[in-house]
Amino acid sequence: MLGVVDSALRLEGKKREFYLASASATDDKNGKTVFKYLADEESEHITRLQKIRDALAVNKRFLEDEKSPSKTRKCSIRLDAASERALEHKALKNIIPEKTLACASDLCALKTAVEIESESVVFYRKAVGDVCGEDGRRVLQLMLEEEEEHLRSLRMQYAFLEANGFWYDVELPFS
Predict the structure, then answer these.
(1) Which helix (H) or strand (E) holds 97?
(2) Of 50, 102, 103, 167, which residue is least crowded by CB atoms under 10 Å?
(3) Annotated domain spans of the chain
(4) Is 2-164 a CATH 1.20.1260.10 domain?
C-alpha cells in the first residue's frame, strides 16, 4: 500500500502544479477560478494521502479513520513493486506542468486537464482493484470518485468552451 500512496502523492502533486500553472496562464476569470479550485482539491488530496503515508511508514498499518488515529488495521496488498511502477509511469507520463506552456489557449489547457484526470481515474480504479483491505479500498474509492467528478466537470467545461468560445459561469464546486 505504501508504494501506491507514494505514487498517488506524486500524481496529485503533478496535477496541482499543472492547475496552478493553468490558472496563472489564463486571462479568463472563470478559468482562473476553475483551475485554482482544482489545485486546491489536489492540495486536499495530498494532505489526506500524506497522513495515510505517514501512518503506513511508521506502523505498516492503514489508518482506519482519520478522526480516530488510534484505530488501525493491517492492510495486506497484492500489488507488487513492478505493477506499482508501471501504474505510476502510465499515470504520470501525461501530467507534465511544462505542457501548460505548450497550450496557447484555454481550450488546450482544458483538453490537457481532461487527459490528466482520465489518467487519474485509471490509476485509482486500478489501485482500488489491486489493494486488499477494506480500509485501503475505501480511501482509494473515495479518491476515485473525486477524480471522476473532476473529470465530468472538466468535460462539461471543455464542451461549453469549445461550443461557445467562453467559459461556463459556475459556482464551485462545479458539476
Answers:
(1) none
(2) 102
(3) 2-164
(4) yes
